[in-house]
């Protein structure tokens, strides 16, 4: 069963074909990074316009790489939420029209659940084993930071989430302020390779009220790094390099994630952790989790950490074989309330 997956939730225009929910036959991602780099962040109106221009040729290329025509598909899956509303509507409208024209079943899926499914996919160059449920999901990106118990492809219980900013947003804002590059996550990760992570000792948030044991907060870290740097310096100012700052910030940002994650491990007893989202590509995070002998930590291939159509197609397959279908009246939604909450 071959499913076309379409992803347009932010600034990546992507399409892929996945067979039987596992084997990636094609995976095409048209990135808008050069377009938005001058603004040091995604401009929603520009993003949606580019999706409108690119979505047809991107889907066409995905079919060509898979060696298929449209009549060789068995279904269509598309991101419906969360994301930038204008961008979502482009992909959703195209998928509806494509499925209707080809008389194919189609399904609108959750972008976040798709990120958690990405580790179940096999690329042509490498195979991946199915991950048995339940496991802990660590969903980390520019828009979301979530720890959850995953009992099925659409069975998720949120254990912890951000009360303010996502970890990927913190990377982007710090990189933007200090001119490290765009996108910020990749720029800081690369710069930190040669830095001293002990050059600054940034504070960790104290979340202790109510049920916030596994939650995250990044607004305080951003404030410390951008506006209060001198208070946390542990080396003479003349000896500090941009790489030291990047390494120290990255260390603290990842420690915040791991503190909540390890609490979730303690609370649930689950020892398998599956990560997804753009920040799952971070080398420091991967290295620290690899050092945990009692945990099985699974990451998607680097090319499937960011937004892509393969994860949409894979998740869509699971819905479609269960008999799920979306009506042509299905709409896009910018937010998913369950993945963010207020404090206290």
Please describe what this structure looks like:
The protein has a 5-stranded mixed beta sheet with strand order 3-2-1-4-5, sandwiched between helices. The chain has a 5-stranded mixed beta sheet with strand order 8-7-6-9-10, with helices on both faces. It has helices at residues 33-37, 44-65, 85-102, 111-117, 167-178, 184-192, 219-227, 242-268, 283-290, 309-322, and strands at residues 2-7, 12-19, 23-31, 75-81, 106-110, 135-140, 145-152, 155-161, 272-276, 296-298. It is globular and about 65 Å long. It has 2 domains: 2-126 and 304-339, 2-Layer Sandwich (Nucleotidyltransferase, domain 5), CATH 3.30.420.40; 135-299, ATPase, nucleotide binding domain (Nucleotidyltransferase, domain 5, 2-Layer Sandwich), CATH 3.30.420.40. The protein contains 10 helices and 10 strands. The N and C termini lie far apart (47 Å). The protein is an alpha/beta fold.
Helix/strand layout:
Blueprint: E1 2-7, E2 12-19, E3 23-31, H1 33-37, H2 44-65, E4 75-81, H3 85-102, E5 106-110, H4 111-117, E6 135-140, E7 145-152, E8 155-161, H5 167-178, H6 184-192, H7 219-227, H8 242-268, E9 272-276, H9 283-290, E10 296-298, H10 309-322
Parallel strand pairs: 1-4, 4-5, 6-9, 9-10
Antiparallel strand pairs: 1-2, 2-3, 6-7, 7-8
């Amino acid at each position: 069963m071959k499913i076309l997956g379409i992803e347009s939730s932010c600034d990546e225009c992507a399409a892929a074909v996945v067979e039987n929910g596992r084997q990636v036959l094609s995976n095409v991602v048209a990135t808008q990074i050069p377009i938005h780099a001058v603004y040091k962040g995604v401009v929603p109106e520009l993003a949606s316009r580019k999706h409108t221009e690119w979505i047809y040729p991107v889907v066409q290329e995905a079919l060509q790489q898979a060696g298929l025509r449209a009549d060789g598909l068995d279904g269509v899956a598309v991101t419906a939420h969360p994301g930038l509303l204008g961008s979502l509507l482009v992909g959703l409208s195209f998928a509806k029209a494509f499925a209707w024209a080809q008389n194919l079943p189609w399904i609108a899926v959750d972008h976040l659940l798709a990120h958690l499914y990405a580790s179940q996919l096999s690329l042509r160059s490498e195979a991946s084993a199915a991950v048995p449920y339940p496991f802990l999901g660590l969903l980390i990106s520019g828009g979301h930071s979530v720890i959850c118990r995953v009992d099925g492809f659409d069975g998720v219980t949120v254990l912890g989430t951000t009360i303010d900013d996502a970890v990927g947003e913190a990377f982007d804002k710090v990189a933007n302020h200090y001119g490290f590059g765009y996108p910020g996550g990749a720029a800081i990760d690369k710069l930190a390779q040669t830095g001293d992570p002990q050059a600054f000792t940034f504070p960790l948030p104290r979340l202790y009220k109510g049920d916030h044991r596994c939650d995250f907060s990044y607004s305080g870290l951003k404030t410390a790094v951008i506006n209060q740097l001198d208070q946390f310096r542990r080396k003479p100012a003349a000896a500090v390099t941009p790489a030291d700052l990047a390494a120290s910030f990255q260390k603290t940002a990842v420690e915040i994630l791991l503190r909540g994650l390890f609490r979730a491990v303690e609370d649930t007893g689950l020892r398998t952790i599956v990560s997804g989202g753009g920040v799952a590509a971070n080398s420091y995070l991967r290295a620290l989790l690899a050092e945990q002998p009692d945990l099985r930590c699974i990451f998607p291939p680097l090319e499937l950490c960011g937004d892509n159509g393969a994860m949409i197609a894979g998740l869509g397959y699971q819905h479609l074989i269960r008999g799920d279908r979306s009506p042509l009246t299905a709409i896009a939604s910018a937010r998913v309330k369950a993945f963010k909450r207020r404090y206290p």
